[in-house]
């Protein structure tokens, strides 16, 4: 739902519950009727650009974590193969 707020913000359209509900309807997605109103109120209190930045940082954080886990699993496999008797 927050992506709809960012779409409206990027286009310079005021973020209202009606605009969010229209985007949801156009996308043919079902959401509970209270979500557009909640998001509109949230966007009044929060800077949408900051929310977008935090979401990007969260995605970057998850990517780095996945890469570290992959590297650790490969290292563990490599180290355990050295311990096997030949």
TrEMBL record:
The lineage of its organism: Eukaryota, Viridiplantae, Streptophyta, Embryophyta, Tracheophyta. The keyword DNA-binding does not apply. The keyword Ribosomal protein applies. Belongs to the eukaryotic ribosomal protein P1/P2 family. One of its GO terms (cellular component) is cytosolic large ribosomal subunit. This is 60S acidic ribosomal protein p1. Keywords: Ribonucleoprotein, Ribosomal protein. One of its GO terms (molecular function) is structural constituent of ribosome. One of its GO terms (biological process) is cytoplasmic translation. P1 and P2 exist as dimers at the large ribosomal subunit.
């Amino acid at each position: 739902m927050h992506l709809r707020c960012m779409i409206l913000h990027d286009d310079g359209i005021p973020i209202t519950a009606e605009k969010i509900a229209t985007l949801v309807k156009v996308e043919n997605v079902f959401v509970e009727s209270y979500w557009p109103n909640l998001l509109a109120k949230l966007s009044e209190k929060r800077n949408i650009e900051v929310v977008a930045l935090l979401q990007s940082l969260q995605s970057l954080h998850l990517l780095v974590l996945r890469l570290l886990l992959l590297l650790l699993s490969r290292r563990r496999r490599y180290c355990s193969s050295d311990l096997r008797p030949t």
